[in-house]
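Project standup — Tuesday

K.O.: blocked on the structure for the chain from last sprint. Re-posting the sequence here as requested.
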Amino acid sequence: MSLKRKPGPAARQAPRKRLSSAELETKQRAAHSVGTDQWRHDNIGRLLNNAVRRFENRVLELMAVAGYADARLSHINLTRNLDGEGTRLTELASRAEMTKQAMGELVDQCAEIGLVERIVDPADKRARIVKFTSLGREWLDSFRKAVDQAEREMRDEIGRTRHDGVRDALKTYGSKHDTLAR
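H.V.: unblocked you, prediction finished:
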């Protein structure tokens, strides 16, 4: 059995069009790039990942300067998903796209350093809610300030118009995921 791709009927019957030099150059560049690995390093997903990594590392640097040198990305993943009034562990795990067990370990780590606590859910005495402690609220305020500063630095580097355009585009694109996740 051959795995070679065969052209469909439309491709076999299409008349040949004479390409301009610009179209030919574009087509040759595209054909060349298929044979290289450049696409793996220059696709939007990879570029977004690199930007997120840079942004989050800057936030962690700023958190360390604020006195929270033990802040980790995993702690941020918890605090991003934790509501001010508290959130059930199962909901935290779902929002963070983690297993309940992994989120439980993360909550334990954050409880150990004093950021969160587990309290009885007033609506269901059998369940527990994860809630910020007073230290956790101070940590969260420092986190907000670090995010604001990292975002200002990004805006200064790439310009307000680009920054606002990226922000708006990501809101639009990401809102489709939020709709699908519900």
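K.O.: great, moving the ticket to review. The longest strand covers residues 124-132. The CA atoms of residues 40 and 46 lie 7 Å apart.
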